[in-house]
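for the record, two folds in this file. i put them one after another cuz i was lazy. first one right below, seq on top, structure tokens after. the second one comes after a little note so u can tell where it starts
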Amino acid sequence: MVSRLRRRAEREEAQDDAAEREEAPEDEAAGSDPGWDFAWTQTRANDPEDATESGGTGAGTGDGAEDRARRRRPRLPRPRLPHIASLRRQPRWVLLAVAAVLLAGAGAGVLIVAGGERERTSAERSQLEAAAPGSSRHSRPTLAVPSAVQRAAARLSLPRQIQQLMIVDAEGYYPRDPFFARLRARAWGGVLLGPANFLDESQFAALTGEVEVVARRARHVRPLIAVSQAGGGASAFPDLPPRPQPLVGETRRPAIAAREAQAAARALRARRVNMTLAPIADVGTAVGPFADLVFGDDPRLVASMTRAAVDGWRRGRVISAVGHFPGTGSASEDPSVATATVGQSLPDLRRRDLLPFAAVAPRVPVVIVSNAVYAAYDGVTPAVALPDVIGKLLRRDLGFKGVVMTDDLNSTAPVLGRNVGTAAIMSMKAGADLLYVAGGRPQQEQVYRAITAAVRRGEISRERLSLSVQRVLALKRGYGLLPAAKARPRTPKRAKPTPRPAPSRTPASPPSPDLGPK
């Protein structure tokens, strides 16, 4: 049908061309007007009055033809330009096809303009660079995490995503305490337990078991259950391993540090604890606040001991969080008690305090960033709120890919002169992933509501939030807290039916005669 219409259109066009060639008078070289009007000539050629005067259609003879020739103006050879009449003679399917192409192109242009990526602001780019250096160059920044983690993060609602980025202090001893009612409503990413939650072994086992039960019944992601168990005075449970870090450091044998950490991991896992704030990677000084808590004052010894301890915790399947980056061994005070200052320059930090962190950066899952202020930077802002510390020094220079955890934000807020909610926002902008909030419900709710409001008004971008959520979920998946996606059961293939044997063409033998006695 289509080819027949096309041939008909070509035939009509050929006939029209032949008719125009017969009608056209010879061109007059003299007196021709170069400014003649093509449209006027075409209109006069198709004038019905001309046809009437000529006594018929087309090229008549006699007075009508002479009259028409007299009235024609001299003209130049007419170029072959399309006109309305030729368009009207096109088959309908051609016109419809052209219209469809034009509409499709216009629609595609509208979609491209409407769905184009919005250009990021400078604040959004700086947040992405602090959280994942180089990510701001991509239209959709993602991390090198399993696709199951990305899907799990995408399924979480905004409140659940923000709650996954908070680790909070637990209050109380028993499952009936008010903390567990709040835990049902808030899917906190982690819970930190300590001596204030311990009465005896059976009570503590019931407490940690109830944390998991509540999360499972509320259909939350399994939380991190953490304790501080670095040894000695830095342990929530002094009766459990490891031994104090100064004693282990005196042996100068990294294998002992690994065995102590692995033994402590087994003891914590038996009590349903899956995370520890250990080991302490600070390099001590004689007058520093942590001289009785660290492996020693030799940077290389501390680096080897810290690396061995991290390996021991990993073999024991307990998450280790190393602190306190970029080093508080020479701080003026304990940052959790008062504003602490570290007076070393950046080259001094690189030669001394950063060596243990550089040794464990490729393998440790979590790094805790300090609340101290550093003369190597501006001298007034805590390290946990500085993008240069988290994004450049820790992530870009040392190549750390894991989770960045804040120290207690209740200790960060007084140094900044702000409330704890603002301290949490500044820490996230600087590149922190996991926000540690000690204290009770008021502080926890203040941080949660501040981060939620900051995300909704665009102060913290959704892309920035997604990076931290993916990191926390990837950490949990690596230690068995995020169940792997269930594989779809394969439908067993139906066995091919066994072909029936073809009937034999040999005639059936007659029944054998009965040879028995009659």
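(here's the note) second protein begins now
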Amino acid sequence: MLIKISFVLLIGNYAYIVLLNKFPTFNFFVMSYLAKAKELYAMVGQGQMMEAFEKFYHNDIEMIEATGEVRKGKDFNREFELKFMEGIKEVHGSGVDGITANEEDKITMSESWMDVTFKDGNRIRMEEMAVQHWEGDQIIKERFYYNPGPMSSADPNQ
């Protein structure tokens, strides 16, 4: 008689599904959505923005700006990101102030900032909140929240 017992073993940010027959075997592991979001932002912080985009964004991604502008599809959003990056002359700093997740609803949220000088000479500090809806290992919908009006100077002495 073969008895099968299965359960989920949580170790750090990983969930392992274990099936017990005669000997325990690990079939596969699943990263939490929080761990996926942290990896995404770690890659961005290491200058791997487009690599992170390719890895973590679904082909049917829908991105929604604070202005309400909606961009659909990975190809369209890839071109948007590349055009944005081409407009940057220098990055003075960037960071993530917080990441959180609702694992049950497959949603992550982040608060991030970037201090940049554009090729036109305008230097700004951009701050935003992003809400990401996941489908499997990829983001299917992302909405940004920020002040779409003029941004203040990034110079902390002003």
